[in-house]
């Protein structure tokens, strides 16, 4: 095993001494997640400037048996890019690799390095009258590589799909230090396995994404935003069906916000909804190159009133008012963090079973964690809720996670809809995933990272791979 001094000097030889961070002060921003709930101790942080440097680092670490934790903008909510506390893992930050290599407005693609900030790429696309359809609240810090590694979702999945659906090609550094170049700018490509999909959402455990080709769309010329309060979750779900009918494929967001969530936003961000409250609010958005959206949104409102689903509602009169309505939704995460500790559950359940899931989870939580608060909001149109529990110090956090996730699985859902497993959900995934899922994951991990040096402890803890510990999987 290489000494720390040898490691640091070899890394400096690859990237230059100033791009190997070693002091606690310099490495601190890379060692803690956004919520500051998980802090690791990296051996060092290395900041390569090119794919060739990433490959050289991976080869060096591979030869020395040192594990690597790849990191993008460090905006993840599951601690997937945070090292463990052993002081032995190298954090490999992609944040110097920010080049937008090409933007093709005719082929509607952008080729970009992994460390590029999402917002910068979106702005570049907008300057050429094109849109990169990945919309997440953290776009000002999140990187393209991080978004791909977590298969991020966000606010417009309803219309454009997950990051997986928007990624056309990848360049990946594999665990042996070789580079797989799949930077193809094609909509259709059935020549062999679609291997890029193995890496999207793999949280850096199978390879390190260094560049990507993403799909662009035309910028919608018209948009409409409306906020509605509804009488029940059933009313919200019925309203969704109605909105799909009225607004059709132009429906780009259908977000659910609980009255509790808006109470947090009002207390911590001093923003209030301009309409009478119900138990739930819906923020909907339509976007299209064709006109007539406003009439369609007013039709949704009128139909909602007629059916008794809607208590009150407003259709934004201006771009500024639309932004104010969106601000209510966008401040929920921050307001929750200011309020105190919370346990995040990023779940998805079919809309058909969502009511039963909520009833089961709440009934069990009342018994197990009396007095816990709930902050429920999310992407109702995708069946994806952020079911966040504001627990008290005397509550058993593990028991809370089990209750929520057991209810999710009972109703056929997923315990990670869009945030990934990270460190937070590995145990729960190992507990709940079908054995065949674990077997396939194990096969892939063993084939692509046989020494288990890429982001160990995330998704599939390598120490468990060759044991019977994962319920009999070899
Ligand atoms: C969102 O939808 C993000 O705003 C964050 O996915 C969710 O804070 C959360 O739990
Ligand atoms: Zn979300």
Automatic annotation (TrEMBL):
Molecular functions (GO terms): catalytic activity; FAD binding
UniProt keyword list: FAD, Flavoprotein
Superkingdom classification of source: Bacteria
Occurrences of domain FAD-binding PCMH-type (ranges): 38-219
Gene Ontology BP annotations: respiratory electron transport chain
Family, as annotated: Belongs to the FAD-binding oxidoreductase/transferase type 4 family.
Protein name in the entry: FAD linked oxidase domain protein
